[in-house]
From TrEMBL:
Keyword Transmembrane helix tagged: yes
The organism of origin for this protein: Neobacillus ginsengisoli
Protein name, per record: Membrane protease YdiL (CAAX protease family)
A molecular function GO annotation: peptidase activity
One of the protein's GO biological processes: proteolysis
């Protein structure tokens, strides 16, 4: 059996991501300052490692991206209401997450749209998942990348946040592998964030 070489660029990127997200969640009062800066650093690192894929037309990535973002929101909306119907304790966790980490002032909403959504996709799908594809098959790469994406949110202290990140990571990972379009997954992520934080928050 051929031994795979250690991908130090991948490992270093993961270490940086965990380090930055750990500090982002330490102080709720300055979360958006640290989180935004952290994602800008991750964008910079990712852009130096991999080229950005864009194999879909403008209309395709805009329409399919918007539809997939709405689809993901509906999945989480249904899950949220199922938690409420079943009277599971996670409902309080979701309310607490909104209270602590949801954007509340104009510049934070700008950071959500211009930094957070593009940054997460460029790093986790455009860099992490893309590099994993050089070592593993599509399914395994998407699953591993989704687990790694969810793992940095353990610092939020919320199991439901980690689970939602894992589910969304799988959906965005599948879209990225299928369409090879970074703009498409960014649009999907943007639509999802706008729905869940601005238009129809789960609270």
């Amino acid at each position: 059996m051929k031994k795979r070489p250690i991908d130090f660029r991948l490992l270093f990127g993961l270490v940086i991501a965990h380090f930055l997200l750990f500090f982002s969640f330490q102080d709720k009062t300055i979360f958006w300052y640290i989180f935004s800066a952290s994602l800008l650093l991750l964008i910079t690192y990712a852009m130096f490692q991999e080229e950005v894929d864009d194999e879909a037309s403008f209309f395709t990535y805009l329409s399919f991206g918007a539809m997939s973002g709405l689809f993901l929101y509906i999945i989480l909306w249904l899950g949220y209401h199922a938690i409420g119907i079943l009277h599971l304790p996670f409902i309080n966790s979701i309310s607490r997450l909104y209270r602590w980490f949801a954007p509340s002032v104009f510049w934070q909403y700008l950071a959500l749209v211009l930094v957070a959504a593009p940054g997460e996709e460029l790093f986790w799908r455009g860099f992490i998942q893309k590099r994993l594809l050089t070592y593993y098959g599509p399914l395994k790469s998407i699953l591993i990348a989704s687990v790694l994406y969810a793992s940095v949110y353990i610092y939020s202290g919320s199991f439901i946040f980690v689970l939602a990140s894992f589910i969304s990571g799988i959906i965005w990972g599948c879209i990225y592998f299928w369409k090879k379009s970074m703009p498409m997954v960014i649009v999907s992520h943007l639509v999802f964030d706008i729905m869940i934080f601005i238009i129809l928050p789960l609270k």
